[in-house]
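[Meeting: bench + compute handoff]

Bench side (C.D.) handed over the final construct sequence. Compute side (W.E.) agreed to return the predicted structure before the next meeting so the bench team could plan truncations. Sequence as handed over:
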Amino acid sequence: MQYRKLGKKGVDVSIIGLGAEHLEHAPLDTIASVVNTALNEGVNYIDLFMASPDVRDNFGTALKERRHQVMVAGHLGSTLKNGQPNRSRDSTICEHYFNDLLTRLQTDYIDILMLFFVDEVDDYDKIFGPGGLLELALRLQKEGKARFIGMSSHRVPVALRAVDSGYIDVLMLPINPAIDTLPGDIAVEDVWQASTYRQPRPETDPTPSRRELHHACAANGVAVVAMKPYAAGWLFNKKNPSAIVLTPVQCLSYALSQPGVCTAVPGCRTANEMRAALAYLEATDEEKDYSAIDTNTIWKLQGSCMYCNHCLPCPVSIDIGTVTRLTDTARYASNNLVATRYESLSVTASACTECGVCVERCPFKVDVIANMKQAAAIFGS
């Protein structure tokens, strides 16, 4: 397994995690099989947002002897109403379901306490305002019942406010090549409509971009968790409206290439689906290659670095994707955290000999040499 730091918290998180959504109605033996397959290969991050008692009980049983091996993300605001999934902002109700989660998981703390599904501005204001769920989350953290605080969202403006607030350690976002073609403020319901992908895109979008959000997370040390990396399985279907078709390995490669991302949490129904995700760890560069997304006419990728490292190997061993990603983040918000990460690189941009091999390899026709010069100018080496 490969691990990355959970933002600025210094905790190691596996780059492949497990999203539990598709296991909500699965029997215990299936859940145990998926969990054991994941943990045996070093997965240490599980997102469990569902409030249904059966799935919580089953995960509690599956994790009973292995709780110490895994970080669990639970969601504050995910409740039930008349037996059906519900999104609540009532602190009393939400605390009840949080305590229920602890009981059923047979644990006394949650690693990442997510503020659940915050997309609208008025909802954000309520949650982050006096008496809102953020106050409850901070109290639970103070009581030792939550290690870190996060938020799940689908819309860039609200997510960016949360990142800039300084209150969250983790941001959970859908990240895949289909949704990333869409405006940052699109409603989640519209993402799954075929007509959405046929609409012309404006040349300029007043909404902050998804990439801007990613760089804000990286600059602020907020860890990004990539949910829905397969776009709910759409990206495996040749008839999907985005026209992009990829394998699980390519989808994960795309998500893990984006700035700030520490882990991707694909939804896995079976142990075999978990193994398909874990195949990323042993995949070749060719198997990880997601440059086919450029076949979608909505993407305007030429000249824009996708941090995919198709340009490697560099003759002087520069990690070009990482250097460019840090440079782009520094353009958004230059601070000591970004500079420290750059200085930790074994080879920096100043080592570039301008040989041009990287430019020849790049499928997106990026002027890599110019990017290296800019990096050296920004960071001083």
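W.E. noted at the follow-up: The chain has a mean pLDDT of 90. C.D. will use this when planning the next construct.
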